[in-house]
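Case study 2.
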Amino acid sequence: MDSSIIGRNSDPRCRRSANPFGRIAPLLGILLVLTSPGSAAHAGGNPFTRGDVNADASVDIADAIFLLGVLFLPGAPPIACEDVADANDDGTVNIADAISILSFLFDPSAPPLPEPSPTSPPGYDPTPTDPFPCGDEPIGPPPPGGLIRLAAGNDSMAPDGDYVLASDAEWSNFWNQHAGGGTPPPVDFTSDLVIAVVIGYFNGTHCSEIASASPSGDIQVRHYHWQLPCAPGIAPTVVYDIVVWENAQQVPLPLTFDATDVDTCPLPCP
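Prediction:
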């Protein structure tokens, strides 16, 4: 056997590495340091852009390098949100995702990355059944609902004012003032609020209505007045309207009351 061939095959420079990735690992490590922003953070439930693995607000080759480093380099910075790195949205993070990012960047015939893709505004993962919750849309309380009238009339004993009642104790105290005792109607204060308006007039030709409530906490109130000669009442009255605002415990306090006076005949009391 030709000894020159033996020598050539024995040369360590010519031996095939047992780890084919080992030769490029040092280079990848350098690139990973250069492409890492140092603190990639996606809190759970935040909108994201798929493929922005290093969280620098862009999708480029640095993201593929960052992902390869995470997959193959011991001690590499972790992925802050797996949904971002799951570039093909198959519920796993592996080398196929780095290939998807590179294909998106350099292959004009490649399909776009799944939503929320780099060509769309940041968003949430449309497949919340995958094992990665960090990109899922947060599930919060339902938005504030409608107004349910509990009582209305013209004989309240409570002081004039706008009332926002957020607990059983507040509600019982107000009801004692308003009705002079008794048990108030039941309200679920784990989710709802009670809103009341009380206003005194010198005669009986008035009524008030809580007309609407917005999620921002703006309460629209209408005070109706009979026009002469339709106003026969002359006795003083204290008019009121009391409503439950469903799912309103989440609305920031204080609420804002905006009142509108409405002249009308006949009087459309609620």
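The chain has two domains: 3-106, 147-264.
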